[in-house]
Amino acid sequence: MDTRNLIIGGALLLLTAGTWWLSRQSPLQEQRPERASTAPDYYLVGFAELQYNAEGVRSQRLAALRLTHYPGNDSTELSAPRIRMYDGERPPWRVKAESGWLSGDGEVLLLNGRVDIDRSASGEALAAHIDTRNLKVQPKQNYIETDEAVAYVSGKDRVNAVGMQAWFNEPTRMKLLSKVRGHHDVQ
User: Which of 88, 104, 159, 186 could disulfide-link 152, Cβ–Cβ 3.0 to 4.6 Å?
Assistant: First the structure.
């Protein structure tokens, strides 16, 4: 009985070794996509880009501590992204986040984690500050949106809401989506 087990064990060992050898020789293995396609093809440290509109006027600035590009889907990950959205002579809107993801076509920028949006005072307009999380940006339209809680402060005015859509081109406008509560200081 021990000889029989030894013969069966040896046959299984030869079968396993033969299967491994055949799998290494198979042309199908060469057709499998490389795992490296999910690896980045380049990265930049201290990245900054300034964009201009058709009239040659600056429209937007994107900066990040680190930019990492992935060729598989042509997307880009950003570490500590910063955006400035310019609107004529008015002070720019400044947006900063913990991290971000940019689609390959540049149409969608997802800002993840805490997001702060600021604008300095100018003329009669007071400074403004917005706190939120997880923002979707359409950079070419200077448009942002979120489904998260939003806190807006300008002077002594305060507004809290859940969900927001905002357009930062002239005329700048903001739509608060639900649970809107505010305090407006009458002067």
Answer: 159
- If one counts every other C-beta atom within 10 angstroms of the C-beta of residue 157, the result is 14
Q: Where are the alpha helices (DSSP H) in the chain?
A: 2-25, 28-31
- Are 130 and 151 in contact by the 8 Å Cβ rule? The answer is yes
Query: Quick one: fold of 38-183?
Result: lipopolysaccharide transport protein A fold (2.60.450)
Domain ranges of the chain: 2-31, 38-183
Question: Count of residues for the chain?
Answer: 187
Q: CA dist 9 to 18, 23, 95, Å?
A: 14, 21, 67
The two beta strands, 75-79 and 82-87, are: unpaired
What is the C-alpha separation between 102 and 44, in angstroms, rounded? 14
